[in-house]
Amino acid sequence: MAPTTLLLLCCCLLAFPLPGSLAVEDFVGGYGINYGRIANNLPSPDKVVELLRKSKIRNVKIYDSDHSVLDAFKGSGLNLVIAIPNGLVKDMAANESKSMDWLNQNVKPYLPETRIIGITVGNEVLGGQDQSLYQPLVDAVKNVYNGLKRLHLEKQIEIFTPHSEAVFATSYPPSACVFKEELMPYMKPLLDLFATTHSSFYVNAYPFLAYTYDPEHIDINYALFKPNNGIVDPNNSLHYDNMFDAQIDAAYAALHAAGYDDMEVRVAETGWASSGDQSEAGASSENARTYNFNLRKRLFLRKGTPLKPNRPVKAYIFALFNENGKPGAGSEKHYGLFLPDGRISYDIGVSGLLPSSASSSMLSKKVSRASVAAEG
Fold it and tell me: Phi and psi of 340, rounded to 5°?
């Protein structure tokens, strides 16, 4: 093929994405972060963008569609996922016009300067206590997707809904995991749509929560990616040396049992609390540093899981900041990698806006250099 012809072909491929592919890269590398804002002491969104760029974190997920955040991300080059909160799910499900109104207010005016690459509809709805949201979630996802199609954005913006471990009937051993039967009337139409749109299955995976529920029987080293004997799945002889990989492969097993072998599993949330209630075993700054440091190192290796070794894991870390307004257990307020003034909470190899007294290890410097190579 002549060089000129080859060049024209490459240009055409860039201008016209292949069917089923997103027009923009929807997740750079393997590492992203959740930017929660239930707090009264956080820096302004423009400062947050500065912090993210200095830390070389390019994938960001928020829990609403706040316009001050959307404005701050304009021209940043950062990938942003925005959200329709649970409180709006019934409105979005009512009819497509509601969804169109939302898209016209919160998405269309910001493209392409703000790189909105995903929309989450609800969070941990299925398996949650409010069963009145189950069917509206399905209808809302369909309506928002149809709205994206009307705007010709369905290939640029992924639509999904993150699930908690509560959607699974069992998750141990990983290969035995299946969805709860009573949730399948709602889960199946969602999975059918996501399979058609080439979207991923998003799960919130928290070894920290699993450990706090059963610290007597779970090896904390297994939860923290530290050296341990691990487990062997008796059904397929796969060995797991950390709980994070096991939780992901459990989701893959559930998808396989439901007939969705080709769907990718991504992690919408994972993290470890640096403090919590007295009853929350393992909530400490040292454990949080260990988990997030080892997790970051693992994600930058761009490797898969024992079940899916050729499919690199992608995960959004929870969270960017501690959120002093979060309700619930004490740990809910203490997941942040950064302090409100932009300093790091503990050293995992990222840079804050201000110098920190946290000591830097040689290993963290290696991870930092690896991050530049992986994300740059």
Answer: -55, -25
* Average pLDDT, rounded, for the chain: 90
Confirm whether 216 is a catalytic residue: no
Q: What one-letter code names the amino acid at 158?
A: E
Q: pTM for the whole thing?
A: 0.88
What is the mean pLDDT of the segment spanning 105-128?
98
**Closest C-alpha among 165, 267, 245, 266 to residue 209:** 165
CATH fold for the domain made of 22-375: TIM Barrel (3.20.20)
* C-alpha span between 153 and 248 (Å, rounded): 29
Residue 202 tokens read as 């998003």
Would the CA dihedral through 25, 30, 31, 35 be positive or negative? positive
Residue 351: what pLDDT? 80
165, 269, 323, 332: the catalytic one is 269
Which burial class, exposed, middle or buried, applies to 228 when counting CB atoms under 10 A from its CB (0-12, 13-18, 19+)? Answer: middle
Distance, CA of 296 to CA of 298 (rounded, Å): 5
Strand (E) or helix (H) holding 80: strand 79-84
Is residue 323 annotated as a catalytic residue, yes or no? no
- Contacts of residue 109, defined as CB under 8 A and 6 or more positions apart, other chains included, come to none
What pLDDT shows up at residue 356?
A: 58
Q: Enumerate the domain spans of the chain.
A: 22-375
**Phi, psi dihedrals of residue 8, rounded to the nearest 5°:** -65, -40
Question: Does residue 315 sit in helix, strand or coil?
Answer: strand
Residue 115's DSSP bridge partners are 79
**Does residue 22 have a pLDDT over 50?**
no
- Tokens encoding 86: 């649970």
Query: Distances in Å between the alpha carbon of 55 and those of 39, 274, 318, 337, 354?
Result: 21, 20, 15, 11, 12
Question: Angle at CA 182, nearest 5°, toward 305 and 171?
Answer: 25
- Per-residue pLDDT, 311: 97
What's the whole-number mean pLDDT along residues 168-186?
96
Q: Of 124, 158, 323, 332, which one is the catalytic site residue? A: 124
Tokens of 349: 């190899």
Distance CA 321, CA 42 (A): 8
At residue 354, the pLDDT reads: 76
Q: Say what the pLDDT of residue 25 is.
A: 65
